[in-house]
Design a protein that fits this description.
Layout (H helix, E strand, L loop, with lengths): L1 H30 L2 H63 L1 E2 L25 E5 L3 H4 L9 E6 L2 E7 L9 E3 L6 E5 L2 E7 L3 H19 L4 E20 L9 E22 L18 H10 L10 E7 L8 H13 L6 H9 L1 E8 L1
Parallel strand pairs: 2-4, 5-7
Antiparallel strand pairs: 1-3, 2-6, 3-4, 6-7, 8-9, 8-11, 10-11
Helix pairs in contact: 1-2, 6-7
Length: 360
């Protein structure tokens, strides 16, 4: 292109000289100095060269502008795609809520309930599940050990069954695809919600048996009595002869409790011994009656030995589960499509008295 422009400007210079010659005439033209003619031609060529330089500079600027524009378009598109990807990943994380090993306390530090590193909250409710292909196909869930769900203000850790044994926790009655709730007295043990109160019944009876054995008892009986309150109303009519009085009637109510269910949890006889040892308490830690019994039996200076005594304990106190918590657990189970009978068992605990009869 530069060459063509040079040729065109050279042709213009030659044509200009011809015009000057025809205008001045031969005689006058011959008076013009050759250098003047050459100067005119050179001036035109210089102008052409300057124009060519400007044209080349313009082309370079245009090319640079186009290149920069193309790069900016690509960079802008890349930024848009990155923003869209981040938005989609954030949405998927929010919806899928994957759990990774780093999201829980390090395995070497786990001695109690599984705990979320982010919220510092214990994972009291645990559901063992199979791996979910739909979740694992999403990039945000790759390498996850499970996922979070929530219901009735309860955070539920859904743990893949092949990952469950890595945490050093125990499952009762066994590890299976079901829902567990932590034993609030032994926090590295998760109990199936279907077996929760049955397990506590056995565990508390076993602890009371151990207490009796360690203290040198000869006989121990553990009885569970479920009570129900009864209210009866009786009408009593009384008539009195008083001035201008009319017959009057009154009613009164009487309340009582009836045993609707009784179960002998343990009835054991020992040989007995006089070397009592202080037992380790779990479910009855802080129970004043038990602590006083242990203190009495392990006191070497006691002057009067205890022969027998019957203690009564509220079962719900040694279960650790409040009725309000049990109701939330039930609601969560129903939301999972499971039977919600946990709160019924919790209510039974509040109506049940544990009687502990011990003889030395």
């Amino acid at each position: 292109m530069t060459k063509r422009l040079g040729e065109r400007f050279s042709a213009v210079a030659d044509k200009t000289q011809k015009v000057i010659r025809s205008t001045l005439g031969r005689e006058e033209y011959e008076k013009v100095k050759p250098e003047d003619s050459d100067l005119e031609k050179n001036s035109l060529l210089d102008m052409a060269e300057d124009a060519l330089k400007v044209s080349a500079k313009t082309q370079r600027a245009a090319k640079k502008f186009a290149t920069n524009a193309n790069q900016n378009i690509k960079l802008g598109a890349k930024r848009v795609n990155t923003a869209l990807l981040k938005s989609r990943l954030a949405r998927d994380r929010k919806n899928l809520r994957p759990v990774f090993l780093d999201d829980l306390l390090p395995i070497s530090h786990i001695q109690d309930t599984l705990t979320s590193v982010k919220s510092k909250s214990p994972c009291n409710m645990l559901r063992i599940v199979e791996r979910d292909r739909r979740r694992e196909s999403n990039i945000v869930s790759r390498g996850a050990i499970g996922y979070w769900t929530s219901a009735e203000d309860i955070e539920i850790l859904n743990l893949y069954i092949d990952e469950a044994e890595k945490f050093g926790i125990s499952f009762y009655p066994e590890l299976d695809k079901t829902v567990y709730y932590v034993n609030l007295f032994r926090k590295n043990l998760y109990i199936s919600v279907n077996e929760y109160f049955a397990y506590l019944k056995k565990a508390r009876a076993a602890e009371l048996e151990l207490i009796a054995s360690e203290l040198g008892a000869k006989k121990v009986t553990i009885t569970l009595k479920e009570y129900i309150s009864t209210v009866s109303a009786k009408r009593r009519e009384a008539k009195a002869k008083i001035p201008r009085a009319i017959s009057a009637s009154t009613t009164y109510t009487s309340e009582g409790t009836d045993v609707v269910n009784m179960e002998i949890a343990a009835n054991l006889t020992f040989s007995g011994h006089d070397s009592p040892r202080e037992p380790k308490l779990l479910y009855f830690e802080g129970e004043s009656d038990i602590e006083q019994l242990i203190k009495h039996r392990t006191d070497d200076k006691k002057r009067n030995n205890l022969i027998s005594k019957t203690y009564s304990f509220q079962s719900s106190k040694s279960s650790g589960i409040k009725e309000s918590t049990a109701a939330k657990i039930d609601a969560a189970l129903v939301e999972m499509g499971l039977d919600g009978t946990f709160s019924d068992e919790a209510k039974r605990e509040t109506r049940t008295i544990l009687e502990y009869h011990i003889e030395f």
